[in-house]
Amino acid sequence: MSPETSIIAALIVPLVGAIGIALAGRISPNVREAVTLTTAGALAWIVWGLLPIVFAGGRPGVTLAEVLPGINIAFEIEPLGMMFALLASSLWIVNSVYSIGYMRGANEKNQTRFYVMFAVSLAAAIGIAFAGNLFTLFLCYEILTLSTYPLVSHKGDKNTINSARIYLGVLLTTSIGLLLPAIIWTYSVAGTGDFVMGGILDGKLSGPAVGLLLGLFVFGVGKAAVMPVHRWLPAAMVAPTPVSALLHAVAVVKAGVFTVTKVIVYIFGVDFLFAEPSSSWLLYAAAFTIITASIVALRQTNLKRLLAYSTIAQLSYVVMAAAILKPLAEIGAAIHMLAHAFGKITLFFAAGAIYVAAKKTELHQLKGIGRRMPITMTAFTIGALSMIGVPPTGGFVSKWYILAGAFEADNYVALATIIASTVLNAAYFLPIVYMIWFIKEEPGGKEHGEAPWQSVLALAITAALTIGFFLFNGPALELERQLVEGMS
Amino acid sequence: MNALDAHLPALQVVVPMLLSAIVVMLKPRGLAWAATTATSAVAFAISIELARLTLDGATINYAMGGWPAPFGIALGVDAFSALVLLVVTGASTVTLIGARASVDSEIALERQPFFYSAWLLALAGLAGIVVAADAFNIFVFMEISSLASYVLIAGGPDRRALPAVFKYLIMGTIGATFYLIGVGLIYMMTGTLNLADMELRIHEVADQKPILAAAGFITVGLGLKAAVFPLHVWLPNAYAYAPHMVTAFLAACATKVSIYVLLRFDFFVFQENLTGHAFQFSAFLLPLALLGILIGSGVAMFEKNLKRLFAFSSVAQIGYIILGASLVSVAGLTASILHIFNHALAKGALFLVAAAFAMNAGGLRLADLGGIGKRMPWTFGAFVIAGLSLIGIPGTAGFISKWYLISAVMELGVPGIAIIAVIIISSLMAVVYIWRVVEVAWFGEPAEPGVAAPTIPPMLIAAIWICALANLYFGIAPQLPADLAGSASQLLLDHLP
Q: What is the pTM of this model?
């Protein structure tokens, strides 16, 4: 397959898969799940097939249609997008295995619709990853918002509908209200919205306008959950856990910070932004989000909501790292997307496994649960350590690079934020870890063991990836080094 | 150009008009519908051919009976007319394709031939307004289409349509009269009714005051017909209580034809011929457009009846069209004319969906629609697509016109930011009113339990999906309407020195 065909195939395979899942859903659940896994496998195979080309410095691209003069639906792969696509497509396989155990174990209704919309969401995520210009990215971004709405509102009861309304409301409001004007503004001053190494705005825009445009972008991308546009993420926790795991720890939220990073690197240009003082507010906004979200997480009593606030903080790590505007920090931003993804998906998988096996969702219910679910809770512990950034987990690697970048830029705000948030992370994760292993279970609880084996297998894999990323992160670093070539 | 092509402007009007007389006599069941649909399809084919001929900016002039203008009746079709003709005949044809079952359920069999005859008269009238090249014939066709529309709107089983249509009749007549007064004043000063001729002779008029008065009368009169805020009050009830198919047809094109006349008259005759007219035109219409956008969307957010909700949304969408035009720039006019096309696609689809819902629910209040999306998933899917287009989500036709409109407003510089804010706020309001329906239709419970399996006429579903897919197609490949709109706005502005 030529790279161009591969790109189109990567976009079409999940959509074809969605149709296949819908049809197979009428035959039997087993056939349907087989179609899901085949689709996920095929997608990952195609995306991995593109990696050697990008590694060698290739930037394969394809233009599908010219919508308006100068505005195309076009795709082009660069290192950041390559990594995001690899992440989303590979974890989709693991997540599908997990979903089988979870959805059946929890007796969820409308499972066919669930798997269909999941496949559509993945197509949109791949579209975001490969988008060659702002317009294409925006198109896929909105498709992702809309296709995840049925997943968030899956249960269909009153509480869920209200939360789904917040989800959709925040994401659509920010994207139409801020991101779209930002994109149109970019097209009108630069004459293009293509992602170009070094940016397209140098010499076209200066002064406070740069900071304003950056603001429109950062808050317009609601999926990056920089405060105050973070409210949708806790609301999205009403979704079945596999959705929270893959979409609201990986695909959707990473699509947000990915977009922010991509805009900083390819639209503004790192050096251009560094020289423009009006853009410096972003670092403070991200730092504020990190600290505030961590403090809010401290006060949560529901496990998934705690994880959601932890995600908000971790997303702003990526934004802050990107806002440091130094090569090492940009690498750190890219790597943190990976490291956080492995750790957070493990945590969500564990939360879902607890729900399926024990029907427990609140923190205080988790006393002594480690004895009953040793594999799950071991994985949970690994995930929690990665969030704090303790070696030997992936979280340590990315934090290292972000810190190195902060040192390089002599950026003490970023340094202090990272240190403070590490303490806070420890403060809300370690008590849970202590509780699940060392406090005795309250008597009279339900007898239960581990969740269905598919779920346990999935979370074991992601826990292994979290550790594995600490040991084998060379290729990812190598790939993302291409991102910062030529930066000062 | 072959021999037939030369006659197309006339055939565009003559074919439906003649057939409307014949349709009255087609008593056997279904025959009147078939003949009307076929006629409308022919009219649609003619307008496609006209669009093809005028795409490059050409104008086809036609002198009725060989009498040359300005003495005979002159017709003319250019890119602007062609685009509006496409909208009018396309809306009529697609609606008719899906109309049969819905009309059967609303209109007694023996009255159907008259109903379809009125439909063709309305079609002929609307097409006539667009092709007519002189002010008086525009008025004549306006009356034909209006009278036929009153009949159509009042023709349904809903008695509430009668006061609604009475209001429409009174206000429509005032609008037409204002227009006629304006035309009379101009005729008094220039001695001609032909628009092209008027444009030339108006220079020679020494005293501009009567012309100024005429401009005022014509703008207000046509604004009334076009339901420009705050002259829209006739519209919501007329749309809400008309037979569903009539609403789908008229909502897609009727007000737009009045906007067409407004733009054409203004840019051909008044702009640059009256001192300060461009400013007066903008200063009058721009605030009204903005208010219409905000208030129309705002009311739609709280409206409880589905068709009234869509109708108020139409008031807002008309605001967008007027807004683009009031900028008096190529980009603005292009956005405005393009939105005439794109809004017709979205609103046509939505009113067709309303018709399908109405056949299967107790009524069209939102409370009646609980859970209807789950019972009619295909109809509901089309509703979501058309709704997204109305909001302006990328990938749909509505997005393209919003993009053009915002780009046009950006040319204004800093004052444009306020206008952009209005456009965006209104888009977000559209999210609210569309999503209210989505939530009720998908998550709601049926008003009365144990509802029968839905009856969904396949032809209606086909019509709905033609519209829905057109919304997607013209969102990805908008070249045809965008080119026509571009040529049209060039044409309007080329008249200005």
A: 0.90
CA–CA separation, A342 vs A386, rounded Å? 9
Q: Are B263 and B325 in contact (CB under 8 A)?
A: yes
Q: Cα(B145)–Cα(B131) distance, rounded to whole angstroms?
A: 14
Q: How far is B477 from chain A (nearest CA, A)?
A: 5
Residue B168 pLDDT: 92
B391–A176 CB contact, under 8 Å: yes
Inter-chain touch A168–B435, beta carbons under 8 Å: yes
pLDDT reported for residue B1: 54
DSSP A408-468: HTT-HHHHHHHHHHHHHHHHHHHHHHHHHHHSPPPTTPPP-----HHHHHHHHHHHHHHHH
Please determine, for residue B70, whether its predicted confidence score (pLDDT) is greater than 80. Answer: no
Residue A202 pLDDT: 82
Q: Cα-atom radius of gyration of chain B, to the nearest Å?
A: 21
Q: Which residues of B touch A165 (CB under 8 A)?
A: 435, 439
| Residue A204 DSSP symbol | T
Q: Is A161 at the interface with chain B, CB within 8 A?
A: yes
Gap between the Cα atoms of A176 and A171, Å rounded:
9
- Beta carbons of B482 and A161 less than 8 Å apart: no
- Which of A68, A128, A138, A186 would you mutate first to test chain B, the one with the most B CBs within 10 A? A68
* Cβ–Cβ below 8 Å for A139 and B395: yes
The first and second tokens of residue B270, run together, are 């008044």
Q: How far apart are CA B255 and CA B386, in angstroms?
A: 19
Q: What is the CA radius of gyration of chain A?
A: 21
CA-nearest residue to A137 within chain B is B394
Q: Give the mean pLDDT of B362-387.
A: 87
Give the chain A residue nearest B397 (alpha carbons).
A67
CB contact under 8 A, A176 and B424: yes
Contact A73 B476 (CB under 8 A): yes
Closest-CA residue to B97 (of B31, B12, B34): B34
Residues in chain A, pLDDT under 50:
none
| CB atoms A67 and B400 under 8 Å | yes
Give A360's contacts (C-beta < 8 A, 6+ positions apart).
A354, A366, A369
Residues A357 and A352: their CA atoms lie apart, in Å, by: 9
Residue of B nearest to A160 (CA): B443
Nearest to B443 among A161, A169, A188 (CB): A161
| Per-residue pLDDT, B450 | 58
How far is it, in rounded angstroms, from Cα A323 to Cα A315? 12
DSSP per residue over A115-161, as a string?
A: HHHHHHHHHHHHHHHHB-BHHHHHHHHHHHHHHHHHHHTTT-SHHHH
Q: Does B391 touch chain A (CB under 8 A)?
A: yes
Q: Is A225 left (phi over 0), alpha (psi -120 to 50) or beta?
A: left
Instruction: Find how far residue B180's CA is from the centre of its chain.
Output: 21
pLDDT at B496: 61
**Residue A243 CA, distance from chain mean position:** 12
The minimal CB distance from A176 to the residues B395, B410, B427 is found for: B427
Chain A residues within 8 A of B388 when measuring between CB atoms: 146
Lookup: tokens for A458: 């999935």
Q: Do A146 and B388 touch (CB under 8 A)?
A: yes
Q: A310 near A233, Cβ under 8 Å?
A: no
Instruction: Identify the residue whose tokens are 């339900």.
Output: A446
Cis peptide bond N-terminal to A392, omega within 30: yes
Chain A contact for B371 (CB, 8 A cutoff)? no
Q: CB pairs below 8 Å between A and B: how many?
A: 60
pLDDT of residue B453: 67
pLDDT at B146 > cutoff 60: yes
A61-68 and A71-76 strand pairing: antiparallel
